[in-house]
Amino acid sequence: MKKALAVTKGLAVKNALVMASEQVMTRVIAMSRRITIRKFGRLAVSSIMLLAASVSFSALSDEAVLKQFNRLHEPFSALLSEHVKTIDNGASTQVDYYGFKQDRERLTQYLNSLVKVEKSTFDGWSKADQLAFLINAYNAYTVDLILNEYPKIESIRDLGSFFSSPWKKEIAPLLGKTRTLDEIEHELIRGQNKTTEGYNEPRIHFAVNCASIGCPALREEAYVGARLDSQLDAQTKRFLADTSRNRMDGNTLKLSKIFDWYSEDFEKNTNRKSESWQGIKNVNTENLSQFLLLYKTALNLSSQQISVLEQDNAELEFLDYDWALNATQ
Questions:
Q1: How many domains does the chain have?
Q2: Is 209 exposed, middle or buried (0-12, 13-18, 19+ CB in 10 A)?
Q3: Is residue 328 part of a domain?
Q4: What domain range is 48 assigned to?
Q5: Fewest 10 Å CB contacts: which of 58, 139, 146, 297?
Q6: Considering the entire predicted model, what is its pTM?
Q7: Mean pLDDT for each consecutive 10-residue tract of the chain (329 residues)?
C-alpha cells in the first residue's frame, strides 16, 4: 500500500485492515507451513515467515505515517484552543494576541514544522489533507504577522501602506518557496493562476481568517483532513447565522462583502474542470442563491424567502466590512 493512499484513511479503517490482514496471514502461514514442510522442507517455511514479517512491518509503517500527519497540526490546535475566545453565543470569536505573544515560541515551532513539509510529500496527500494544511498555514502566518506589531496596531491594514499590502509581504516559507498570504489563498487554495488547480471549495472563505472583525470567525481548533468537510460546514453555518453580517430582510439579501469580492467562487461551479466541492456530496451551484439555499436553516429563511431565492429574484445589498482587529477586548 502506498503511503500517499494510507494518509487518506481514518485510523479506524486502517486498524481494521491491519487486523484483517494479520488474521488472513496467520491462517495462510499455518496452512502453508503444513504443506511446505511435507514438500520442500523447513527452508520454504522460513521464506513464508519472512514474507509475513515484511507485510506486518509495511502496515505498521503506514500507520505510523498517518499518526505523524495527524500530529502535525496538534500544536496549532492547542494554541487556538487556548487563545481564541468565543463571543456572541458562538457566532464569532476574538483572538487573545497577548496570549499568543507569550506563546510565540510555540507558534514559531509550529510554523517551522510546516516549512519542513516537502512539496513531494504534500503532493502525495489527499485533497482534504492538502487543503487543511494550507488553511492552517494561512491562519498561523496571519497571527504571526499581527504579533510583529501588536499591540501598536488597530487593524491588519496598518501593516501595509498605500503602495504595499500586508497580504503581499513574503512571510511564509512553504512548499519550496517563500510565499505571501495572497499566494496561499488565491493561488494555492483558490487556483487563481495557470499553474495551480485549486480546490473548488467556496467554504474556505469562512475558514481563512484575515484578523478582522468583519471576517468569519477564527476557528478554535486547527483544520484536519479527516474532519475538514464537517469543519467547513460548521464554519459556514456559523457565519451565515450571524445576523450582524448576513441576513434576509423581506426580499433583500444583506450579506457580507465576502460574497461580493469572491462571487465567482459561489457561482457556476458546474462549469469548472476541478472536482465538485463538499466531497462525496458532489454539490455544485450555478448562482449565489443556490449556495445560500443549502444553508437556509442557518439563515432562518421563511418559506416565502426560500421561494424568492429558488427563483433567484432576491435583491442584493452588501454590508460594510469592519477591518478593526479581531482582538479580545
A1: 2
A2: buried
A3: no
A4: 3-64
A5: 297
A6: 0.79
A7: 41 42 44 44 44 42 57 97 96 97 98 98 95 98 98 96 90 97 96 78 96 98 96 97 97 98 83 49 82 96 98 97 96
